[in-house]
Write a structure and sequence with these properties.
The chain has 10 helices and 13 strands. Helices cover 22% and strands 14% of the residues.
């Protein structure tokens, strides 16, 4: 087994600006038939996400056995809502841009929609991309061996020349981050910007993030941010670990403002129900939150905190520990 490039995202810093989504979309998925394909997206949680209700479909492994649930309906990906660009810019038939037609769903459909009851309603943003899993279900499901894991950096890649469009990978991925191009009849997925990684440059989604929430580096680099957040401080957790794919994208769980009691005073109850965070990140989220809150308190008391210094990332270069990958 070779090295593994990974990403940690601090959900306490994500503002849902979609800069990462735009950076990825313009670089990788602007071709024909890719309108509905978002290698990176940011969804509001709690919420149905993108594609719609992907968490209810499942996949991955159960009891060590590969799961192949039904395919998600094309309508649950939505698409672009037509705008009269041609009439305005090329035909002179209109002087005003207007949306045309109806959409049943889209990637930002429920953005900023809160859950809970006022004044304790809540929501937060969850950026998602391929997890480049250690045990990728998409790879195990592919009957043509079109999907493989690169030895030098652990990035999971799909060779579209070998893909025959059987869509077993679409079924098997529990995160629904392998897409199908209905024009080319090929599957496609995030490649973690490996041409950039090979030059020691962070993926586009991470490099364009104004919130400095994405850390990128190799898991075995003990001096790098990924190893410290995942293994030393243990505050970065995989999304839905129960799927058994061993994701290599990790999340620092969100901590929102204190909730209010019936008298309108601050309460000790968390604004985001701990049961929901356990649903997303597993039981280890309890200890991660205790560590985060403890280190935040240390900083408030004027004491030093290596974890807070790391997460704040005052020097943006510390987000990325990506040496130029050496090839034979």
């Amino acid at each position: 087994m070779g090295r593994q490039i990974s990403m940690v995202m601090d959900l306490n810093k994500c503002i849902g600006c979609q800069s990462c989504t735009v950076a990825c979309k313009t670089l990788w998925t602007s071709g024909e038939g890719m309108e509905h394909i978002l290698f990176n997206n940011v969804e509001t949680k709690p919420g149905p996400g993108y594609p719609k209700n992907w968490e209810q479909v499942n996949g991955g492994f159960k009891g060590g056995q590969l799961q192949l649930p039904p395919l998600i309906d094309r309508a649950d990906y939505g698409g672009e809502k037509p705008v009269n660009f041609q009439e305005v810019f090329f035909e002179g038939k209109s002087d005003r841009l207007q949306q045309q037609g109806e959409m049943g769903y889209g990637a930002n459909w429920d953005e900023d929609t809160s859950s809970g009851t006022y004044p304790n309603n809540y929501h937060f943003y969850l950026p998602r991309l391929c997890n480049h899993c250690t045990n990728p279900a998409c790879l195990k499901a592919c009957p043509t061996q079109a999907i493989y894991k690169r030895e030098e950096d652990g990035i999971v890649v799909l060779d579209e020349d070998k893909c025959q469009g059987f869509r077993k990978c679409n079924q098997a991925c529990p995160y629904k981050k392998v897409y199908f191009n209905f024009v080319t009849k090929k599957s496609t997925k995030c490649i973690f910007c490996f041409p950039r990684i090979e030059q020691g440059v962070a993926p586009a989604c991470a490099r364009q993030c104004p919130g400095r929430l994405r850390f990128v580096g190799f898991l075995d680099d003990e001096d790098g941010p990924i190893h410290k957040l995942v293994y030393q401080w243990k505050v970065a957790l995989p999304l839905h670990p129960e799927y058994g794919t061993e994701p290599n994208v990790f999340y620092v769980p969100p901590i929102l403002a204190a909730s209010f009691d019936e008298n309108g005073d601050f309460s000790e109850n968390p604004r985001i129900p701990i049961s929901y965070l356990r649903y997303l990140f597993g039981d280890k989220v309890d200890d991660a939150l205790i560590t985060l809150l403890g280190e935040m308190e240390r900083r408030k008391e004027g004491k030093k905190s290596e974890l807070m210094d790391l997460l704040i990332a005052a020097d943006w270069k510390q987000l990325f520990g990506i040496p130029v990958v050496k090839y034979a």
